[in-house]
Amino acid sequence: MARPEKFSLRALRSVRYMPLPELPWAQNYGAEHVGEGHDVLLFPAVLRTGGSSQVESVVEAGQSSCFFHPNLAASQICDLSGRLICELCQTEWEGRIVSLEALQSAGGQSGRGVPAQTRIRWDNIALSLAVLPLLLWFITIVTAPVALLIVIWRGRKGSCSEVQRSGWRYWVAGGLALLQITAWVTIIVLGLGG
Amino acid sequence: MARDGYKKLSGRSAFSVQQAYLGEEHLVVVDGVYQERVKRIRYADIEAILICPTRSGAVLSLLTGLGTLLLTIVALANLHNSSFMAWLIVAVISGMIFVWGMYQQGSAVFGVQTAVQTVILPGLGTKRKAAKALVQLTQRVEAVQGQLSAEALQAAHQIWRLADVAARERVKSTAGAVGPAGPPPIRQSGSTAVEASVGGQP
Q: Among B114, B153, B156, whose Cβ lies nearest the Cβ of A23?
């Protein structure tokens, strides 16, 4: 949703907007505009005007248009794909101007492009499979081996998270899964022996 | 424990699994339990930090404080009964929640605004955590952008005020150029262009 004014602040608990305060640090500001006071700290980026997209329709014959928006004037050449792109399509990546489409395509190539924005958390999946089924203990005969398989398959690669380092979830999931498998083996052996 | 280069800014809350980390060039917001979704906000793009105090913390503190008082009275009334320990335990738990709420100094909503979005960090839902995160995040942002001076902001306000006045003057002068009789009437039906647009024909 575009801001109604170029320089304004969005309230945190509603969709209303308030103008910038007179000072960079303002306490209990904005109640008369948005109904609730906010503590506001501003940074120089709030005054920046160059970042906002200024799109113009193609009005002159012969003027280049954007590859993805034929009715908008092209203002840059994508450093990845070489296509002419408008202000809406362009973004800065590693100091280069690229199009969002080329950036997403580059992300699909292994070893290149941007880091993945989503990751499967195999450690959390293994831990959940080892813990949650205990509520219905009889299904652990299936979930415990699955959890152990995940731990063996993915555990060697370490934490799945981009920001979390520790792989303790794998250890806990593996330990619990082993205990459950041992318990089932014991039950089955005793049952067969009995 | 965070990887090298990342420092934890906010953790999970009662109603959200979102976490935030301070990276070298980005504020990294991580969401999701089984599929981790990562959002990066460059420090250079952060325009403002907003903190909005809320009343839910005060309400919770009031309820737990009253609850502690009442439960303590009930526990003392059952001093010689077998249920005394149970009442006392519940009173102590209520009291601990009350003390924890007072320690956190109330509830708040913490948000980071950029040119395209405002990201709320639910893990900074208390005033104490929000104040601490404000200091940490401000250090990172100001290391990249520098501080915004009051003079620069007031100069910008002055420019906007002058621009508003000029825009209003332009509107007034444009309205005056229409004339006392008002704008020319819209062409009635019988005009090909008007019929085509009303009929929705290409």
A: B153
CATH architecture group of domain B7-54+107-172+183-192: Roll (2.30)
Assigned token pair, B145: 């952008």
Mutate to test the interface with B, among A163, A168, A169 (most CBs of B within 10 A): A163
Mean pLDDT (whole number) for A143-150:
95
pTM value > 0.90: no
User: Cα angle vertex B55, ends B52, B61, to 5°?
Assistant: 130
Interface test with A, best of B36, B56, B151 (most A CBs within 10 A): B36
CB of A45 within 8 Å of a chain B CB? The answer is yes
- Using the Cβ of A94 and the Cβ atoms of chain B, whether some distance falls under 8 Å is answered with no
Which ranges in chain A belong to alpha helices (H)? 31-34, 100-107, 122-131, 140-154, 168-193
Band (pLDDT 50/70/90 cuts) for residue A178 is very high
In which order are the strands placed within the sheet that holds B35-42? A118-120, B35-42, B26-31, B19-22, B7-10
Instruction: Give one word for A30, left, alpha or beta, with left for phi > 0 and alpha for psi -120 to 50.
Output: left
Residues B114-144 pLDDT 10s: 888 899 999 999 999 999 999 999 999 999 9
Rg (CA), chain A: 28
Residue among A9, A45, A118 whose CB faces B44 most closely: A45
**Most B CBs within 10 Å, among A20, A29, A36, A46, to test the B interface:** A46
CA angle B36, B39, B42 (to 5 degrees): 150
DSSP A98: E
pLDDT mean over A10-35: 91
Q: Where are the domains of chain B?
A: 7-54+107-172+183-192, 56-103
ipTM of the complex: 0.78
**CB of A46 less than 8 A from some CB of B:** yes
Residue A42 has its nearest CB partner, among B34, B38, B153, at: B153
The Cα of B69 is separated from the nearest Cα of chain A by a number of Å equal to 32
Q: Residues B73, B79, B82, CA angle at the centre, nearest 5°?
A: 120
